[in-house]
Write a structure and sequence with these properties.
The protein is elongated, with a radius of gyration of 45 Å. The chain has helices at 4-16, 20-34, 45-55, 61-70, 75-88, 150-156, 159-174, and strands at residues 59-60, 91-93, 98-101. α4 crosses α5. A hairpin with a 4-residue loop joins β2 and β3 (98-101). Among the domains are: 45-101, Arc Repressor Mutant, subunit A, CATH 1.10.10; 147-177. It is 49% helix and 5% strand. The chain is mostly helical. It has a 3-stranded antiparallel beta sheet. It contains 7 helices and 3 strands.
Length: 177
């Protein structure tokens, strides 16, 4: 029976021997990595959403989200991609909230560029006018005074006041009493 040292060294020598089948696989993998990509990427959620809406026009967002949820993806991701596609002009939504594609082939979504405003249109801020402590006081409310008509006056007076008013008016107009 060989000792442990010789058994281990023989095992290591066997492992170190070049294996011709493994080398050919490694060479093939290296040659694949140097090749240019010639196929379309299909694992993009935006692309998948576009293709699903293109193939099934007139779906609502909830239906599309339910489909992607059944595929193991997050439903709100597909709905978010649909909203972004509308902003980019790739999809449209009708008045019944149904989605349709506007172009036949997918194109990557790009963020819309912010509209730049010319510096000439920038206005200076308005000066703040402070009323000081007067701002804390309640503003006086105007009361509408009723129109003084005969009927209004007589409806508000009792008998004594009416008699007193009568005597005053006779005194003013006749000079008697």
């Amino acid at each position: 029976m060989p000792d442990i040292k010789t058994a281990l060294s023989s095992a290591l020598k066997e492992w170190d021997k070049p294996n011709t089948t493994n080398n050919t696989e490694e060479k093939q993998m290296d040659s694949r990595s140097n090749m240019p990509q010639t196929f379309k990427i299909t694992n993009n959620i935006a692309r998948m959403t576009f293709e699903y809406v293109r193939d099934n026009p007139g779906l609502k967002a909830k239906e599309v989200g339910r489909h992607f949820g059944s595929l193991g993806l997050k439903p709100h991701s597909a709905v978010a991609m649909m909203s972004a596609s509308i902003k980019c002009g790739v999809m449209r939504r009708d008045e019944d909230s149904r989605y349709y594609t506007t172009i036949p082939e997918y194109r990557p979504l790009k963020k819309p560029k912010p509209q730049s405003t010319p510096s000439a249109s920038i206005k200076a801020p308005k000066p703040i006018t402070s009323k000081g402590i007067k701002a804390l006081l309640p503003e006086p409310t105007r009361t509408v005074e009723p129109e003084l008509t005969n009927d209004y006056i007589l409806s508000k007076l009792d008998v004594r006041q009416a008699l007193s008013l009568y005597r005053e008016l006779i005194n003013i107009f006749t000079g008697k009493m």
